[in-house]
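Entry:
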Amino acid sequence: MTEGPVFHVEVTAGSLADLKAFTDEMQPDDLGCRPVVRRRGTEFVLDAYLPEAQLDTARGSRPAGGVSLEVVENVTEVGLQRQQEVGEGNRFAARGAVPRGLGRKE
């Protein structure tokens, strides 16, 4: 398990070669469910989910000069906040009430 927070990061590069060089060197563990490079104007963008230590390393890597890293959100913090919505008991017990929040698989 990863220690420390995990961040959703947009990796932006001016060319596919720069983006590939960055991902080849960094070997990110998580590029989302379906990694897709998308165009934004003249640049190429890829989503990655990086632990804090890997994000710090990525910022100082050799191919980082050809890419920019923009932190979108701290997904660990967002996940912990969303877990606060999880209630206790059977959320389907009250007839006519619409269940809210995250469920728990039993």
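Helices lie at 16-26, 52-59, 75-83.
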